[in-house]
Amino acid sequence: MRQRPADTVSAVLLALALHVALLLLLVFGLSWTRSNAEPAFGSPVTAELFDPEALSAAQRRALEAPPEPLPEPPEPERLPAPEPVEEEAAPPPQPLPQPMPEDAMVDPQPRAQERMPEPDTLDQDAARREAESELAAEREQEERRRQEQIDLTERERQEEAEQQRRLARQQELEKLRAERERLRREAELAEQKLKQIADARARQASEQAAEAASPPPGRPDGDSDLAARYAAALQEAIARNWVRPDNVPLGQTCRLYITQLPGGQVMSVEFDASCPFDALGRRSVEAAVRKAEPLPYRGFEPVFARRLNLNFTAQDR
């Protein structure tokens, strides 16, 4: 809408009138504030206490001098009265301006539709070939992973079979070692039995030769009772130092041969092949003979023999 010159003049006059009214209000407000700013009871009074004797001579003279009169305050400046402002008459209503062709409302033009690009056949073929190549690569990779998994499973199966074969060979070797150890022990036992049989035969031959050379103890003087008491003393001395193993039953008898010196010192202890005691029982009897050393001798000199044939009976003390 176009603005006319008459409208501009009326607007300027209204603005000037408004500024003049504001200036008058400001002047009257300042004068009213100054007239009412003074307090009703004047300025406040202050006082200070001091000692007259402590003042100097100059201060005493100043106090004794009469006070000077205060100057009268100047009269307040009065502002000039504002000039009356003539009220400007309101302008008469103006007719509405005629609409101009250039000021007419025009509907906006519709926005042109964006042009869709036409698909490129070459790009589609390249994308299709690329997708096919990617799919083929994925299939090849999947086939490779599947083949690797098959190879890994086959290797694990072969390793497990090889481990089982090694375990079977190790078990066979252990069985062979155990069988070899059993055969070795049996051979040692057989050798020991043969040695015991040979020793027994040798002892039997020596005993027969000794019996043929000299009569048994106690018989030269016919004192068989002393020989019986000597045998009982030997049995008592050995049994006193013997601890019966659990696998040796009570009342079981073992024949042993003791070689001694005059005075009862033991030289050796041997067992007859017919002794039913096992190795532990024989060792316990030999330990008891060693502990009973020296064997009974004093009082049994007439029936003493360097080699004793003793039948030891298992019994608890």
TrEMBL record:
Pfam families (alphabetical): TonB_2
Sequence segments annotated as region (Disordered): 56-169, 198-224
Biased composition (Basic and acidic residues): 125-169
SUPFAM superfamilies: TolA/TonB C-terminal domain (SSF74653)
Stretches assigned to coiled coil: none
Residue stretches of biased makeup (Pro residues): 90-100
Protein name in UniProt: TonB C-terminal domain-containing protein
Source species: Luteimonas endophytica
